[in-house]
Amino acid sequence: MRRLNKRLAGTFLALLLAVCAVSAIFVLPASAAGELPRLVDAADLLSDSEEEDLLYTLDEISERQQTDIVVVTVDSMEGETAMVYADDFYDYNGYGFGTGRDGILLLISMEEREWYISTRGYGITAITDAGREYISELFVEDLSAGDYAAAFTNFANLCDDFITQAKTGEPYDVDNMPMDTAGFLVGNFMISFGAALIISLIATGIMRGKLKTVHSQSAADNYIKQGSMQLTKTNDLFLYRHVDRRKRVENNNSGSSGSSGGSKTHTSSSGATHGGGGGKF
Length: 281
Hints:
Blueprint: H1 2-26, E1 39-41, H2 48-65, E2 68-74, H3 82-92, E3 103-109, E4 114-120, H4 122-126, H5 129-145, H6 148-166, H7 181-209, E5 265-267, E6 273-280
Helix pairs in contact: 2-6, 5-6
């Protein structure tokens, strides 16, 4: 009987260890404040190596900035709106640092071809409405092209930059945006054009100064060689008049939301305050 009890105890212990081992295999690495990782690729858009690299980037930025940066992909939102799905996913999976649950979540739904950025706590301060539009312009093109790894990495790095800027006390907003590459190139072109114009004016001025025998005249007939031709009659002839008339367009957008900064907020189903917005890709 004792031997049987020992065997049963040994078998039970072995089964317990096996269950623990299997459980350990399927446990996902949790974020600092939540139950799920900061990358949930349920739509399987990334390769294993891309997932590993992106998760490392998300974790590093989140821990350093003390603001969760989360990327979630799903096949379908199952009838929910993007705002509701993103807010609830953030709230009910424990994301966010501190009492304000600071963080930013990017949701991608493949069936609806929608993206949505949900912000909470300090994320609302760091990513204003204008800032969100700016960020989306820099990653949605990659989304549409199917380069998901580049889109998500770009999103994470932009969030990092925007959080860093917000900590200076002046978040990126309507009148305070980072200079993009296009703006930089246009600025350089204008500087180069201006420099070339100045140089050309100096060069033509020097050349004109060397013309000692030619002087400008006030009347056209002063350029005619004396005795080369005789005019019997001169008069001014008015040929035509053309006047452009265009209706003046009044600007009635002075009170539009595009001229104001900051973030519009709403209340999620959990009662939390969120900012955010999204679109199609």
